[in-house]
């Protein structure tokens, strides 16, 4: 059911619009305002999926009402209607944030089509917000240990800058989480963060993946394709496992960082890109440089800021909080009640050598949630944690 506000001073127009909308969907919840002043009050008191707003009204005209609604909640689609407008009025309404503009009397097909598109748009906006919240929760940093406080402090200082960041740490320690935290707290947070796992892409395809390609550049290149650098324009590009990148790709990345330009594979013209690069690796890049497998000049370009993510063995005080967090996460994913865990079981988890870090720990918690009783006991940890 969609909640719709009709703002129109002519009773006949309101009656016709309401009839059309209810014939389209009898479950629409339609409310009426007869002037701009009452419309402003009603808009502020409700949660609306769609608004129809006349332009010529007593007390407060429709343009002023539109401006007010956009300042309160710009996500609600507003369809402006008028019997006295012209093209300039329509353009002005759209510039001020209206979803669409319809002249009176509105064409029935166009009216219904606009309503469907507006409601679809509103629902899409809500879905995107929900997904963003889920992503944000996914990358929440859990822990109150001293090393985690230091890590948060470093992120808070680095994120607002434009500095490139090299994130190091063992496998499964949360380097991707740190990259997301930097992006979310940066000035680029409204633009995308594009991720590339350099270790998962074959060496012969990494350049196409990063820089895109032109149709016919190689066998299988049936059309032009944008690369990750271009897709991340105005946002952040996360190069995970940068230590596994081929030397030829490293050279092109270096050029992109130096010149803020990329050239697609098979292309002749360069493309300007505005990207903040965040990179991560579990390798010792100084050793890779000494062995000739990593470019020293690229290392210095990437490591303006160095952040080292601690392994779980260096923050065992956080294990009770992490266990509670992952138990809730697993319970939510499975649609079951969250299991409790007793103190002896937590102590057993703290005594464990976590070579796989947070990734391994999360898997163990899921295993315990499935196979243990409630509460989870020390004997369950001994029985299942090392499986």
Précis, in short:
Helices cover 48% and strands 13% of the residues.
Plain-language structure description:
By secondary structure, this protein is of the alpha/beta class. The protein folds into 3 domains: 133 residues, Response regulator (Rossmann fold, 3-Layer(aba) Sandwich); 172 residues, 3-Layer(aba) Sandwich (Rossmann fold), CATH 3.40.50; 72 residues, Helicase, Ruva Protein, domain 3 (Orthogonal Bundle), CATH 1.10.8. Helices cover 48% and strands 13% of the residues. A hairpin with an 8-residue loop joins strand 9 and strand 10. Helix 8 packs parallel to helix 10 and helix 13 crosses helix 15. The longest helix is centred in the first third of the chain and has 31 residues. It is globular and about 80 Å long. The two termini are 50 Å apart.
């Amino acid at each position: 059911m969609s909640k719709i506000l009709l703002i129109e001073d002519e009773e006949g127009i309101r009656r016709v619009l309401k009839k059309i909308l209810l014939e389209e969907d009898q479950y629409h919840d339609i409310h009426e305002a007869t002037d701009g002043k009452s419309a402003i009050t009603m808009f502020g008191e409700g949660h609306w999926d769609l608004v129809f707003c006349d332009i010529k009204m007593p007390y407060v005209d429709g343009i002023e009402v539109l401006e007010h609604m956009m300042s309160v909640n710009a996500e609600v689609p507003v369809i402006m209607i008028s019997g006295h407008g012209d093209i300039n009025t329509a353009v002005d309404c759209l510039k001020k944030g209206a979803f669409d503009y319809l002249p009176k009397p509105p064409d029935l097909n166009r009216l219904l089509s606009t309503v469907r598109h507006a409601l679809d748009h509103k629902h899409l906006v809500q879905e995107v917000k929900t997904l963003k919240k889920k992503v944000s929760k996914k990358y929440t940093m859990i822990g109150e240990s001293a090393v985690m406080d230091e890590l948060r402090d470093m992120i808070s200082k680095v994120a607002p800058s434009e500095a490139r960041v090299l994130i190091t740490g063992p496998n499964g320690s949360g380097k991707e989480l740190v990259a997301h935290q930097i992006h979310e707290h940066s000035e680029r947070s409204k633009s995308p963060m594009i991720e590339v796992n350099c270790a998962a892409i074959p060496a012969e395809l990494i350049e196409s993946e990063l820089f895109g390609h032109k149709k016919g550049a190689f066998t299988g290149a049936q059309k032009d394709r944008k690369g990750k650098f271009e897709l991340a324009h105005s946002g952040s590009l996360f190069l995970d496992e940068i230590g596994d990148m081929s030397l030829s790709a490293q050279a092109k990345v270096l050029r992109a960082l130096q010149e803020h330009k990329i050239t697609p594979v098979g292309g002749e013209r360069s493309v300007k890109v505005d990207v903040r690069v965040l990179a991560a690796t579990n390798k010792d890049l100084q050793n890779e440089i000494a062995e000739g497998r990593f470019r020293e000049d690229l290392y210095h370009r990437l490591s303006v800021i160095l952040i080292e993510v601690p392994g779980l063995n260096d923050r065992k005080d956080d294990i009770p909080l992490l266990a509670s967090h992952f138990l809730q996460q697993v319970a939510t994913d499975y649609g079951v009640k969250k299991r409790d865990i007793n103190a002896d079981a937590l102590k057993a988890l703290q005594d464990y050598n976590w070579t796989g870090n947070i990734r391994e720990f999360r898997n163990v918690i899921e295993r315990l949630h499935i196979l243990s009783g409630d509460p989870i006991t020390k004997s369950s940890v001994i029985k299942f944690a090392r499986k």
